[in-house]
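Hi all, long-time lurker, first post. I run a small reading group and we've been trying to get comfortable going from sequence to structure in the token notation. Rather than ask abstract questions, I figured I'd post a concrete chain and ask someone more experienced to write out its structure so we can walk through it together at our next meeting. Sequence below, copied exactly:
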Amino acid sequence: MRGLFAQELLTMTNFYGGKIMELKIGKVKVLVIQGDISTQDVDAIGLAANDRLWMGGRVADALKRKAGEDIETEAMKQGPLNIGEVAVTSGGELTIKKILHTVVMGQDLAPTTDTIRHGTKNLLLKADELKLDSLAIPAFGTGMAKVPAQESARAMVEQIIDVLLGTNNLKELRVVLHNEGIFKAFVEEFSKKFSR
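-- Answer (accepted) --
Happy to help. Here is the structure in token form:
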């Protein structure tokens, strides 16, 4: 795959007390980071959402506390949405421009690898369509929904590679993971794709 898509594994080093893996996919710099998504210096944050767009998952709830309750109200006014659709809200009280809420589950709060794939793809396409320079995303489904980290990583990494090879505007994607186990799952999945 390395030669076919001219993808290059650049470095893996320590970063702000956590860890980081840096890659280049197409024209996009990809950083896989162990850290806090709400502190990232990016244009937007993307997160997994349910079809009614209420913010109750681990990452969504943390963002709502920091950005303000208005972002949930703003999102819910756009719902209900179908799996894979993306609601766009302001960044609230955060320094980011936007929050992109990609629907990966219904009211059952049970995403599958297929819905994670679909949501990841459409989120990245929406970010490119909005001409965002940078986006941070977490691992979809690994919090409250308890999707195994390796399954989330496999579904998301596949779509990250496919979509980023064709983007025009996005320059940087940060995959920000809150614990070491999830970080390792994503590093392993990216490493598999780049070592073929």
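A couple of things your group might point at:
The chain has one domain: 2-194.
The first strand starts at residue 8 and ends at 15.
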